[in-house]
## 1
Amino acid sequence: MIPLSDRAPSRWQIFTAAPHRVMFFGGALQTVAAMLWWLTDLALRYGMQPYAISWPVTPVAAHAYLLIYGLFPFFMFGFLLTTFPRWMAGKEISARRYVPAFVLLMLGAVFFYAGLASNRMLLAVSTVLTLCGWAIAWHALLRVLLDTSHHNKRHPIAALITLAAGWCGVAAYLVWLLCGQAVWLNFALQAGIWLFLLPEFVTVGHRMIPFFTSSALPQCRVTSADWPWWVILACSVGHGMLQLAGASSWLWLCDAPLAAGALYLSYAWNLRRSLAVPMLAILHIGFAWLGIAALLFTAQSLTLLLSHGEHFLLGLAPLHALTIGCFSTLLIGMATRVTLGHAGLPVNVRRPMWLPLAGLQAIVLLRILADILPIQWGPWLYLASATAWLACFLPWVITYLPAYLRPRADGRPG
């Protein structure tokens, strides 16, 4: 008999050998499934022969949940469960902590699609499963924080707080599903963007982008002041609170300084020079969209103020500049870097993969145009942007999904 220690690891052991493997696998599937559902809904509503289908919830409420709470958290947990021990010189997180979280989050995703095909009760079950998986993953991160004595825990603490805010957003969505009061849905959506996603991406970006830039461009002087990070976090929370209060005309009070902080960091981190390194450029371009989106939000809010709330000039263009331009680009940049680095492969983007990633920027422009051009163009641009999303993400999924099921190329564990 072959000794147990000499046996080749099973496919399941390989798959669960590191947290980013299981979580990125789920996130990769969601990048396709979530947009495929949205494209189906758009095609039914705006196709050559429009067909009205009755979902248990409005399409917008389902679309927002799938992207905010059904897609991004997989990648965030995969990244943080991998990097938290490295940030604080702690012990690696064991599979018994992150595998149950992954299973529950995946079941939550499956039940959500099942609920869309049947009834709200299955949607409620989906959110309960998601809340349980989220809590297990959050607790695993908390244990790393509490068990280490690292001198600098600012970024981990901020990341945990924003993840807790995201959990509250899912809980609010569950309450809305059960009682139907719109205030809970509004809180879930606003909290998801302004208390969870934006602070989380900015915190990870502030911790990692200067580090990656210094490594890739050692000849450049990279400064990473803390004050813009704090300004962005405070303004993001302030924006969310003003949105919940219905004070859209005053959002510029938060959005203008948020834009200033984000644009300053892009300048301080050498955005222009980063473009020479494709893998690094993806991260810098994604972060630059934060400043652009904040400027668009500022213009939107000032227009509402000056017109006494009569002109919603840019529609959802600022929101999609933020979610697609900033969040999606940063997601792909971080996920690609972690996938390659932890697969024992060179951290660079081959030309066939660079084109779809660049195409993601075209999707942002398409979605912005859908809100700016005359209304008759909207449906076609909605369909075009959703189709382009799949065209960009499918090559990424096909290329990198197998990496989560194979051993590392360099023979190292993980």
## 2
Amino acid sequence: MARAGTRILDSGETLPDLTMATVLHGQITAPEAFGSAWGVLLVYRAHW
């Protein structure tokens, strides 16, 4: 499971605020970018 601090997120819980740069749309903040709908957040690290 994903971790937010020391607490484990569970199904149905809100994602903590994350601001990130995108390739096409500048910066977005999740979960705000999804509104009240379900969404998928795919993070591609590109290099280890």
